[in-house]
Amino acid sequence: MPVYNGGSYICEAINSLLQQTYKFYELIISDNASTDSTYETCQFFARSDSRVRYFRHAQITPAFHNFKTVLALARGEFFMWAAADDLWSPRWIEEMMNVVTKNKCIAYGRVQSINENGEFITHPANMNLFSYKGHVAWRRLRYLVENPALGKANPIYGIYPKTMLADSALAALTSDEFADTAFIYNLLASLEIYSTPTAVHYKRIHFACYSRAPCHFSIFSAHKPSFRSKLLTLLNLTKINYLLYYAQYKPILLLKNSFLELTTIYMVIFLRTSRNIGSFIVHRLLSSNNS
What we know:
alpha/beta; 8 strands
């Protein structure tokens, strides 16, 4: 469980895991130099339950480093990241272990969004099944074109065979936007994703979770993101994913509210392309006249 200033919800999250029907696991908490009550809460649980191991960074590090810290500290054959503000159905780990031990896959259940008070809220990802099986090329293609609004990043919080976490996938865990989806996309080269319909991950959506998100990048930034990240960002910038979502779930709303926005975006792209072509032609004409 990587955490930074999670004092508001981490007690609930830890209790949700310690009360699981499956008992044979260790809960590793990596505290990214929190300045709130996280330290006191984690110390209490570490003293009261031998399954809890608490580690604290001396100074704050990038969020993805904290994710990798808990993985490096893990000693078990199987591994799961757990968000410090989420909850899980009581048989979550038991059901995931039944799946992952039989299939050597990424095991996940369903997701249900909740608010600050733990109340159910509406979200397009709610109760979807995240199942990506079959030939490697097919399951990776399905994952690539899947609309992010439907929650395809959530299986990062599934259970994995620890030895199957390839270095190429872990390298995708950076501060880039879509790092979670790039991580899953890489893992799909060697693992399928099985989704269990009776296990539920209660994902909390609140303001603080956005303020703790990794820094994002632009496809025009200077630090040279990967081609895959550029492609995913471009899909998002051009609203293709939103178009797919609304076309599938809200076609009337798409026609009513999105036509002008989509037209504007693609017009801008067209004008930029035309400007570049026009500049090239003018340059060539001037070069010809000078010669």
